[in-house]
Amino acid sequence: MLNKTSAYIAIIISMFVWSMSFIWTKELLAVGFSPIIIITLRLVISAVLLFLIFYTTKKIDRIDRKDYPLFLLLSFFEPFLYFFGENWGLKYVDASLGSIIIATIPIFVPIGLYFIHGEKMRWQIIIGVVLTFIGLFVMSYSGKENFNANLRGIALMFVAVIASVGYSATLYKVIEKYEPITITTTQNIIGAIYYLPIFFIFEWKTFLSLPFNFSTLYPLFALAILCSSIAFIFYSFSAKKLSVAKTTIFTNAIPIMTLLLVWVLGKEEMTINKVIGMLVVIVGVFLSQKDFKKKQII
Fold this sequence. Notes:
It is a single chain. With 298 residues, the chain is mainly α. Helix content is 78%, strand content 0%. The chain has one domain. Helix 1 runs antiparallel to helix 4 (95-102) and helix 8 (180-208) packs antiparallel against helix 9. The longest helix has 29 residues, at 2-30.
């Protein structure tokens, strides 16, 4: 019982931190940081920090050679592909809209697993998908002039959703064998290696011209330490104790937290479009999860 309570507390903390990640990322984008620079720096900081702490304390499991491809694939999906879609998508959509798209992950994970593992598809999922896209249209539509930009941002955010489907399917194969600390540390090290060549080839000159002060270092280190390190460790811990399917459902809370945070902090206006669209998407997501307790997807 204590383990389950700890798992629920851990996943709630992860969702809150990830809700803030949309705000911190938007702050860095606003002062000239490119998505590649943000992703690379947060991964490098996280990887170095986790490695120094857990490798020196002998907390990291030894990875079997036969599992190397799984970790390479896991890291490709997340952080590499996921962060690419999320950070580039946030250049074109508000933090609240970006978070609502991420909240559709519980819908698309079982769809992906239907094609990967042949799991049964429920009618609730189809309705959930339809409601999700209706809600996203309502949230994103603010006039013909800038709808194309939102559509591009939505497409990029869905790259992150697809990456999360692949991540969940791969995580299922390693979560029983390795500890959350090992998984998070390894995926961030590999993710940083994936991004570093792109960073040095395309973004080095831009990086040298960026302002580094408290207003930029604070969100950067918050993303690295809280979002890429602590939140992922907590998420993997919860997935190990509760199952991947149950922890994925908690992403439903991200858009509500994000929308309230950006409104309280004065980052965005609370428009009727956003409220109605958010409610439609949340109804679709919760509907898609109905009766899943009878048969776990993963």
